[in-house]
Hints:
The complex is a heterodimer of chains A (about 625) and B (about 110). Chain A has about 625 residues and is mostly helical. Chain A folds into three domains: about 1-140; about 160-370 and about 375-550, no CATH class; about 555-625, no CATH class. Chain A is built from 26 helices and two strands. A two-stranded antiparallel sheet of chain A has the order 1-2. Chain A starts with a helix and ends with a helix. Chain B has a single domain, classed as Helix Hairpins (Orthogonal Bundle), CATH 1.10.287. Helices cover about 75% and strands about 0% of the residues of chain B. Chain B has three helices and no strands. In chain B, helix 1 (about 5-25) packs antiparallel against helix 2 and helix 2 runs antiparallel to helix 3 (about 65-95). Chain B is elongated and about 60 Å long. Chain B starts with a helix and ends in a 13-residue tail after the last helix. The interface between A and B is small, with 9 and 12 residues.
Amino acid sequence: MNNVLQIVWLIPLLPLIGFLINGLGRKHLSKTLAGIIGSGVVLASFLISVYVFFSVKGGNTHVAHYFDFINVASLKIGFDFQIDQLSSIFLLIITGVGFLIHVYSTSYMHEEDNKDFAKYFAYLNLFVFSMLLLVMGANYVIMFIGWEGVGLCSYLLIGYWFKNNNFNNAAKKAFIMNRIGDLGFLLAVFWLIAKLDTTDYHTVFANISTLSKTDIIGITLLLFVGATGKSAQIPLYTWLPDAMAGPTPVSALIHAATMVTAGIYMIARSNILYSTDAAEITRLIISVIGLATALLAASIAIKQNDIKKVLAYSTVSQLGFMFLALGTGNYVAAVFHVMTHAFFKALLFLGSGSVIHAMGGEQDITKMGGLKKYMRITQITFLIGCLAIAGCPPFSGFFSKDAILISAFEHNKVLWILAVFAAMMTAYYMFRLYFLTFNGKFRGTHEQEHHLHESPTAMTLPLIILAVLAIIGGFVGVPHLLGGHNEIATFLQPVIPVHENAHPLSSGTEYGLMIGTTIAMLIAAVFAYLQTRNVAVKENKGLGKILENKWYVDELYDTIIVKPLQSLAAFFNNVMEKKGIDGFVNGVGRAVNYGSRQVRLLQSGYVGNYVLLMVIGILILFIVQLFL
Amino acid sequence: MEIQWYIYLAAALFSIGVIGVLTRRNAIIIFMCIELMLNSANLLLVAFSKMHAAAAIGKATATVVSDGQIFVFFIMVVAAAEVAVGLAIIVMMYRNVHSVDVNFLNRLKN
């Protein structure tokens, strides 16, 4: 057992070393070397993670204490790592998918300068380091360090092409919106410290009975605010679609597979807090917000024409599904969906990167079409990704989404109907994307058509591996009904206790739900195929126009938050600063100037005047001396 | 004689001096008025010295009773030196501007 603790610190340390080498030596490293270092350290972390995974399989939990991070009065926060089933799953996702994306990036980013290439890998390694810290921390403070680190890396990588001002604005938007959520997280941590004097997971969960109802509701809600920022839920989701400004592998790694699932990880980690009776209202809020996000984002994705924007809104929508699962108390389904989503969404993003690469930077799907002739591997893997996300059996998305839908059904029928509707929209927009991109005739310029080619092996190999994972990834969570054992639930049992359902669904109902949702998705897919057969670019009207413009949420935020803030700032600038402070400072100068101009007149040059003043002065002194 | 008569006389002389300095523009007359003020002060010093000496006679602690009178000699010497410098300035002034009017020398103005 101690063997695990002896090497576990290497998992985050290796990417940190990679970051330092690539970051400091970026001017001297060749592209090959930077790529090998960047990918190699993540591969090494992955191998250690696999070892760690098998060591916790038996239900062990390891906590390693390295040093005291904060030690003030009665408050003691250690720099501790906790390795258990939940964190080991995330470790595998982060390092495994992360490694594939690193390999993919070596080819995708090859046109960058040597220096920028190494910088890119340095940022990517720093991100992996922060993300590992986030999931490995044994208390909320260490988690928060990682939480902030991934936010920073997200900012750096969205604004990677920093010469484009729009990209910079997208980076700033992501950072600021995350900060709003982070404040909630931070307040929750302070609240915990004030009440329990500790942030260690073990101690917090053991002392949960000492917390009052208000405390639990407050802490869980504030943690959820943190999660809405990081995991792009209403009302803080608008940064994620804009974050597509970054390079495509970054979108795959950070904005699909790992960072955005940090909020789900946090709530799944705190599942004991969220499962208390007091937190019922929080669970309701989480499921409503999750479902609303899933519906809203899916409806927007239907009308988007940018290949990455569709995937971005689909990510927001899938995250909404995960929050729905969390809100209905099915934490295992949420973690399961995180895992399968990491596979198929990374696959879809990398596939879209391959398409963009072939199209020479074009991202508009109305200008694509018929690409299956030119890029077979990308097309097949992309199709697998679409089938997985749409929830077609037996692809991975089917099992995880089914678990969420069934849990919603058990909870509330209305939630279920809306969730199925969102899942149908998912199938529709994904197949619309697929058919527009790969089917039909090529609609781009002749020059682009000439340039079309399959991507190099470094890009297709990760696609193939991820596609395999997207197919088989679901088999770890096959429900008992279909003859499986739901291994993931058993595996996570020590961290996420399974609550036996008092009224289990009859197997008939469950079969019916599965078949019903599957048919609904197939209908949506067929509908998408029929609609995309002839692409006439026509002006959207009515609801379509609203959807195309993303429900005008950005404009709404602009009007109610950004504009008033700017006019307030303008007021402070023009009135307080220019008239008030500047006026005061300039006024002092002007008063001295005016005063001295007046006093100067006393220097008349006439001796008599001086003498008179002298006599008056002496007289005043006498009067003061004698009478006052 | 009572001490207050000396004080009245000295005050009168000093006032005449001040008024002279304030009202006259001729440098030599201003100079004379300044001398008048100096000598009113001398007069007071001598008078007070005499008064304190009369009061101190017969007391064991009294050693020197003529400090004020000695002080007057110093002032006279300093005044004589001052007159030498001052008159020299006035002579130079007359040589340069052919006038001893102090208001004529206002080139420092502005």
